[in-house]
User: Fold these one by one.
Assistant:
Number 1:
Amino acid sequence: MADEHVELAHIPPPQTVEALRAEIMRQYDLASRRMKQVASFVLDKPEDVAFETLAVVADRAGVQPSTIVRFAKTLGYPGASQMQKVIRDEMLASHITLAYGERARQFSEAGGGDETADTILDEYVEADILALNHLRQSVTAAQITEAVDAMVKAKTIYIAGFRRAFPVASYLAYALQRAGKRVVFIDGTGGLWSNQARGIGPDDLLIAISFRPYAEETVKCHALAVEQRANILAVTDSNVSPLVKGAAQALLLREAEVRSFRSLTSTLCLAQSLVIAYAFATQDEE
């Protein structure tokens, strides 16, 4: 993947989705723009890659089919179909709701034309139900436990979420303070986000929340936390999000999108789950 025009021969191809994801991430920084485009699609839309034809995958990824083939070969596969099979076999074995992407697309396409208030409400409710079901299947109990453990151990929790993620960040800050945790809410008032984040250290935890196109302020807070060797919990939408690199843990989720407007329902549900789990984990300390 380091060069779009050079195939890396004799590389043993990944035989699990986790190994495939790791190899993509290993090569990602040196990849060409087109290869990064394919990598992001494979990581973010694995059900499309697994169950659609090569032509459909290429169209949805915005590249030529030959680019998908070259991408697969840089990972050691003879061609794209072998990479697709690895993803498809594991998805079938894990009983994940495979149709999420297709159902969401069909729902979005069916929603056009009628713009009455009750129809828009119905569209968002249905889309959010799909997204919440995906959240339940993609974020495990073990991940929640790991995140809460980091929250409990942290001397101070710093929370950063700007633009669309701001409501979630402000809720987390409010709820964790009510739960008795020492919290610094990096809200960037007056453009002073760097002053608010300046005190973060190795005994602290940064919860960084951002989604495409990724708020610059959140990315900079994340970089500062990495520099100060603080623990980082990223809440984001992709394995190639700038918040993932350097984070001890990343919780990945998809939000519903209706008429090009994205919801926050799944993210808020995850935030509430973290807060309540934290409260239960610390109730004996009170």
Number 2:
Amino acid sequence: KDQGKLNLEEKVSTYLPEMQRTNKRDMTVRDVLLHQAGLKAGIPTWERTVKDGTLKPAYYSNLRTEDFPNEVAPGEFSLKAADDSVWAWTLRSTLLPKVKGKYPVEYSDLSFIIMKRLSEKILRQPLAEFLPREFYKPLGLGSMTYNPLTRFPKSCIAPTENDTYYRREQLQGTVHDQTAALVGGVGGHAGLFATANDLAVLMQMNLQNGRYGGTSFFQSPVVTEFSQPQVAGNKRGLGWDRGDPSKPEGPTSRLAPASTFGHTGFTGTCVWLDPDNQILYVFLSNRVYPDAGNIKLRTYNIRTRIQEVIYKAMEAKTPKG
């Protein structure tokens, strides 16, 4: 978008012609980023590659070869074409039913799977090559990476789930998300590892609308544009989530202003950026260790309560009422 290569009002199928003969032919880039394109939250992917609790040999090998290059877990490698399989399943997936003529707003991993495919088509290179060169290295983000076991010892990486149903081991250093693992650890929706400090630097660059350390990473106010609410009835920005101070059950503290934007993560993470007060909040946890069924973080509203303490301590400007 910043380079003028992406039109938010254009149909995604204009950029990805293989979508033109599917039920996704008319989705616009804007609707996909706003999670209002009718995409389901998720679809079966890894489940199709397992039978009776055993990995299908058509999809996996215990040796890394040219045909099986993607490390799903230590000692298990997936088919080179796994990414194309996930893409085919995405294209064939059904849509949500419309409500009063419109698709409901519902977060979908498929939105980011589609955007990864679209981005790589426009960039003509994998995201795992583009992002480190253009952002992570210039920003000095030494820890931010996909597949961290290729660079760091396991002891430096927090464990996540004790996976008893797919990879059948304690996960540590490989992406928790099963679909991202299947395609080799680099997903549009999952797969990135980092320390809190490196994540804070990346988010500070966003908070400053693409500027950091004397360098402008964006030549237009694209962060401000993407972080704003876009349509009535949908609090989300483009790719970003947003808080709602009027709803105590929302993802941000009631003390955070309506301009706050960011995102949460399934494994127990969040970042929230407050342009009014110039406050950046980064929270990293491994709430899925050892069991992804652990919902105490949400039940006790831990992330939001910590954010509230920050606002009270800093005496920040907060919403009226």
